[in-house]
Design goal:
Layout (H helix, E strand, L loop, with lengths): L20 H6 L15 H23 L1
This protein binds zinc ion (ZN).
């Protein structure tokens, strides 16, 4: 069997625990499901939304000029 190259995002979300510093920095965690820290999945989605908003805003600026 082949091991998947792409890391899955099955990291534990533990509300009430401190955020995993490794996961916050890299969106990955070497301890995976065994990690005791919180892995907020919303972070990646929030960054994506931010990114899209930036693009939209840049387009608006261009059209104004
Ligand atoms: Zn972790």
């Amino acid at each position: 069997m082949k091991a998947p190259i792409v890391p899955n995002d099955d990291y534990p979300e533990r509300s009430g625990e401190p955020d995993c510093p490794y996961y916050i920095k890299t969106q990955r965690c070497k301890d995976g499901l065994r990690c005791k820290f919180n892995h907020p999945r919303a972070t990646a989605e929030a960054e994506l939304v931010n990114y899209l908003a930036t693009i939209l805003r840049a387009n608006e600026d261009c059209s104004v000029i």
